[in-house]
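To: structure desk
From: M.T.
Subject: fold request, one chain
Message: Could you run this one when you get a chance? Sequence is below, nothing fancy, just the single chain.
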Amino acid sequence: MISFAKHCSGSDHSGLLHTVAFGFRVFRHHLLRRRLTLQPTVSVVVPFFNRCSEVQPCLESVLAQRLPDDAPFEVIAVDNGSTDGTLDELAKYPVRVVRCAVPGPAAARNAGIAAASGEVIAMIDSDATAQPGWLAALTAPFVRPDMLAVGGRVDSLSVVRGVELFAERASVLNQRKFFSGVLGFPPFFATCNVAYRRSALEQVGGFDETLRVGEDSDLAWRVLDQGGCIAYAHGAFVRHAHRSTFVGLFTQALDYGTGAAQIFAKHRHRFGRRVSVQWHDFAGLALAPLNASRWLIFGTTPYERRLGLYEAVYRAGFTLGRLRGSLRHRVLFL
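Reply: Done. Structure tokens follow.
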């Protein structure tokens, strides 16, 4: 059986989706045993940009997936203008390769969606690996005709370095957290592990290619506006690479903060306000030196002694990103 949680929108799409039904349900086994004709066809879209070394682990993990009754699925690999030999690596695998000259993950995924033939479009990042059973668990809920999107579990690909361990423990890519809503945002899924019904994507026009960060949440909200369900499937499991350096962690947080402000600017009608200030984040940033000193003195492992520094770097990046995004997009989202 497949265990999942679901959000279903009704006719009222205002505010923070207060009418959403939330709970944990068991997806009954008999649904999976119905005729194959009820299970939608599946395409997997993977965007690549200068990911030569990631082609093998990513594509081999995807090609190893199995659907019920050995139903076929196609894999679309989108090259987004790579210059490092990624195209040569992609040619070694039985996948359809599509080239996208427009830079950015939103454009690359849109190109893959346009080339795909499946009724359900599954997506995974090029620096992630799909675990056994991923695709079956991710696409099984689509036997429900009102199921529009499903997201799955994301864990770290590596926790060798302290920064990676911090990102894992801080739930930087925790899909269950995204599904429950963060920063007061409605539920969404990151594109490193998600599937959408093709008709829903076509109805909203796919990803917004003007967005560099946050295109995943923007798409999820526009899809949910159609009136249907999105679900979290814990058994749909991928491992994703986290940032492994202080600079990488800061840059990621900076981009996330900037993107969050841009998304707030675009979707202010959902929140009923023009200003959002996360005072607890400012308090945390102000107390960061004290917190870092506390961990440095009382930490019992090298990771713990640096924990306060990791937190300070991430908070600083995210706060500066929100400030930069607020100035750039003329909103107050701090």
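Reply (cont.): Residues 1-5, 10-37 have pLDDT under 50 and may be disordered. Let me know if you need anything else for the meeting.
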